[in-house]
Amino acid sequence: MPVPSFASFAMHNKFAPMNTRHLLLLLAAMSGLARAEMPAAPAEQFMDSIGVCTHWSYSDTPYGMEFDRVAAMLVQSGIRHIRDGLSDRMIELGKVGIRATVVLEPTRSIEDWLGAIRKANAAGARIVAVEGPNEPDLFWLEYARNYPPGTPAPTNVTDVIEGVTRFQRDLFAAVKADPALRSLTVIGPALGRTYGYDVRSPFREGSLADAVDWGNFHHYPGGNPFTNRFTNKICPETGA
Q1: Are residues 157 and 81 in the same domain?
Q2: Do 28 and 146 share a domain, yes or no?
Q3: Does one domain contain both 2 and 82?
Q4: Whether residue 84 sits in one domain with residue 14
Q5: Who wins on pLDDT, 49 or 194?
Q6: Taking residues 20-29, what's their average pLDDT?
Q7: What is the number of domains present in the chain?
Q8: pTM of the predicted model as reported, rounded to 2 decimal places
């Protein structure tokens, strides 16, 4: 059975309130409006905007058990960016064109981290960005992390935010002062809990604006919805 064209459907559907000519004129006008509001971009640019989080250290999952297969699927997908903790897997993936964002925690000194990144890139990794601590309002409390070294373990989110802010500022300054790494994009930390309704984000507005290139937000379906409740700023944590 032949499939009717869109135009014939509009002509013969008794529920269509306009004739074909009117409909086509409307579609043309809408198309022009869409082009004016959102100019076309090359597919290459769109592909370069996509990344995925990986977990190469999860040894009991395909990440660890079937790295070659997962890596091949990643390359085949056309995705060019990953986000993970620093590992030798980034060297292997860098050699086939996969770029990486490295999440950093105060488990090592910032100087050690940057030295390891320089070494990895020299070996073939394509690390293009560093990111501040991952969901520290959850994990710094759970693992008793704080910054700088020697600071007592945090007992509440306020303690965490103070340490994270110090870490992020020192990270940003160190990266931008390093001739080999200053081109890296420095991404801010993202929180794990939901804020912005009855409880505001514990980061003071603008408190990280001069310590990041990009802000950061973890959007989870059913939690942390990014809406206008966060005021008109793109990233309330950074004030950007």
Answers
A1: yes
A2: no
A3: no
A4: no
A5: 49
A6: 62
A7: 2
A8: 0.76
Are 7 and 91 in the same domain?
Answer: no
According to the 3-state scheme, what is the secondary structure of the chain?
A: CCCCCHHHHHHHCCCCCCCHHHHHHHHHHHHHHHHHHCCCCCHHHHHCCCEEECCCCCCCCHHHHCHHHHHHHHHHHCCCEEEECCCCHHHHHHCCCCEEEEECCCCCCHHHHHHHHHHHHHHCCCEEEEECCECHHHHHHHCCCCCCCCCCCCCCHHHHHHHHHHHHHHHHHHHHCCCCCCCCEEECCECCCCCCCCCCCCCCCCCCCCCCCECCCCCECCECCCCHHHCCCCCCCCCC
Range of the domain at 220: 43-230
Distance CA 79, CA 99 (A): 9
Average pLDDT, the chain: 83
Same domain, 113 and 189: yes
* Averaged pLDDT for residues 209-218: 93
